[in-house]
Amino acid sequence: MENAQNHRPGIPQDQLLERPRDRRPVRRPTVVVTLAALALLALSIVGQIVAGADYPAVPPGLVIPVVAAALLAWRPNRWTAGLALAVGLFIGVGAVVTPNTGNHLSSGDSPLIVSTLAELLALAGMVVAGAVSVLRFGRPKEVRV
After folding, report:
1. Do residues 55 and 95 touch, judged by C-beta distance below 8 A?
2. What is the number of other CB atoms lying within 10 angstroms of the CB of residue 98?
3. 33 and which of 3, 104, 128, 129 could share a cystine (Cβ 3.0–4.6 Å)?
């Protein structure tokens, strides 16, 4: 029976009101992890600034993840997940290529070391979860009837 669950005795089928569909996007676990990694990355940059690291007045490492997280939260799809992955790779390469990360880790300043380790953890999580999100968004969705 196609409308067996909506059938109520005594009410004709054409007079049944349809329930409004929930239009909120489904939050896939990989999207949630990617959003958490973006937030951790932004917080780790703030932690580094508080610990005394030298950053510009408006640090791009803080602004870019916040914008990527806002886009991914607003429209979770393959393109925004790919953008988050690209942000992770871009900032991750920058963290490895520049000597700042090594200087922070060898500084002896505990808050600076912890915030730098949090940044590296966030970058690793963002790259892995972002890559899995991109791959999962590429799969065809299950059709429910």
Report:
1. no
2. 10
3. 129
The Cβ of residue 133 has, within 10 Å, a number of other Cβ atoms equal to: 28
Comparing C-alpha atoms, which of 99, 100, 96 is closest to residue 88? 96
- Look at residue 57 in the predicted model and tell me its pLDDT: 87
Burial class of residue 44 in the structure, from the number of CB atoms within 10 Å of its CB (0-12 exposed, 13-18 middle, 19+ buried): buried
State pLDDT tens for residues 44-77. Answer: 999 999 998 888 888 888 899 999 999 999 988 8
pLDDT at residue 5, rounded to an integer: 54
